[in-house]
Amino acid sequence: MTGRRLLLPLFLSLALAACSDSGQQSAGGGAAGGAPERPPQPVSFVAMKKAEQPITAVLPGRASAFQSAEIRPRVTGEIKEIAFKQGSEVKAGDLLYKIEDSTYAAEVAQAEATVAKAQASIPSAQANLARYERLVNSGATQIEFENARVTLLQAEADVAQANAALKAAQINLELTEIRAPFDGVTSISNVSIGNIVTANQTNALTTLRRIDPIYIDLIDSSANLLELRSSLESGKLSGDPRKADIRLALEDGTEYPTTGKLDMADMSVSETTGTYQIRALFDNPRDIILPGMYVRATVTLGNLNGYLIPQRAATRNARGELSAKFITADNKVETRIFAKSSVSNNNWLVTEGINEGDRLIVDGFQWIGDGATVQPVEATVDERGFVVEAPKAEADKPAADDSAVEKAADKPADRP
């Protein structure tokens, strides 16, 4: 019984020692054969460079005709001819409509006859006045002389009145031909041949529009106007917005090939929307832009010295502040907040919080947090700010590594 008591503790101690050795071996084997630590995640970055960049504003707008006229008749009559092709271009002076003119031609003939009758009475009135002028001192009274002079003046007035009536009749005859007041494009005709039209009627016969050049009416907030004036007065913003180039994006997103110029800015602000209107002028030789078309205009307001942050590399926090992630000197991630930023084409422009050469993460930042260690890969961003392109040296590395792996795979394994 005593021997059994002595053997039991000895057995337990041996068992504990064996378990301890087994745990150590197991731990050692896990360290040797387990998965290695996860390597730093590669992220693309661009080096920050300070330079003078354009400050831009993207504004909504609509196109409107450079000139527009609703064509209406100025005399009454029947439409005898429609001389233009609807929706086509016409030149100034081209015939658009022809109104029946027989009545107006007769009025011209009648007025011409009245003029001839009035002119016929002048020679006799002149001769009568001359006769009384010779006899005024030898038997003719002064009253008879004055009456002869008044008769001549009345005859001359009758001629002038008849000529005025003739001119009015000729104008009415000319107005039976309705012509284009300027170069432009016609709309659909609202009347047909045989319709009766009246002088200065409410409904237009057609509408003529000149769309080359064409106006673009833009809308901006009064707050932006005040900020722009403040920047110009402080000297932070250089350039003259009145001479700025304006670029357009059409409804389908395509860029209009021609830049425009500022034509005017309204000197009042809407009481309901707090906005004011800007009008730009664009050449439109191919009639790509049509009146009423919606567009987005990028207006260059001036130039500012600062750093560009591509829009794809930045986000906004809950307070609306711009934030972006950078790589520190020890290849760790940090987030920076920028209280003030401006728009520069497809980028944000900041003037504070960045130093020359700082590394901005432009791709891969969505899955990493502050303090994480990363593997920096230098890259470039194209003009639109959408595509990140790795340099050729970096792009060639994977190909070399793949080739080495393939060669290692082709090499026969050493036999035991």
From TrEMBL:
UniProt entry keywords in alphabetical sequence: Coiled coil, Signal
Region (Disordered): 391-416
Main location: other
Coiled-coil positions: 108-179
Residue stretches making up the Multidrug resistance protein MdtA-like C-terminal permuted SH3 domain: 308-366
Subcellular location: Cell envelope
Residue ranges of every copy of the Multidrug resistance protein MdtA-like barrel-sandwich hybrid domain listed in the record: 68-207
Leader sequence segment: 1-27
Gene3D superfamilies xref list: 2.40.30.170, 2.40.420.20, 2.40.50.100, Helix hairpin bin (1.10.287.470)
Domain Multidrug resistance protein MdtA-like alpha-helical hairpin: 108-176
Keyword Ribonucleoprotein (UniProt): no
InterPro entries linked: MdtA-like_b-barrel, MdtA-like_BSH, MdtA-like_C, MdtA-like_HH, RND_pump_MFP
Pfam (any one): HH_MFP_RND
Boundaries of every Multidrug resistance protein MdtA-like beta-barrel domain copy: 213-302
Family indicated by similarity: Belongs to the membrane fusion protein (MFP) (TC 8.A.1) family.
Protein name: Efflux RND transporter periplasmic adaptor subunit
Organism for this UniProt entry: Neorhizobium turbinariae
Phylogenetic classification of the source organism: Bacteria, Pseudomonadati, Pseudomonadota, Alphaproteobacteria, Hyphomicrobiales
